[in-house]
Amino acid sequence: MTLTRTFSTLAVLVLFSMGCATAKIKGTEIDDTPENRSIVDVVERYRVAVESRDAVALRSLASQHYYENGGTTHTSGDDWGRPELEKVLARFKDHVKAVNYEIAIQTVRVVGNRADVDYEHTWAFQYTDGERDAWTRKSDTNRLELIKEAAGWRILSGM
To answer: Given a cut of 80, is residue 82 above it in pLDDT?
Structure first.
């Protein structure tokens, strides 16, 4: 085999492998598929709604079956659902005065009509505590669980 033929073969292999690479959604390492794009869009709408303190938008993103386990799996005493979400959203709107919210999606996993979105988030918010306003800043990881309903993807837990 000649050197020219070897380089030609390598060039074809490189071009072929580039053609097989899956495009990523901008700013993520998530494969750019229609389903992933629609899920990432829900997460971005969630981020914007939190940052703008838009309880109506947050409510519209939540599934009617929304459920939180309160961070514990061994007891259901601290679990809550959609009715309590309404109370949380009202307190959020009343007590949080300003929010800066950043989300970096790490993974999206879809199984049937369910999806898990793992992400890192950083937020700074100004809140009212009694008669004084204060700022706090935090970083953490979280998972949003989504469910595909007739109207599209909705958040099932993790807000």
So the answer is: no
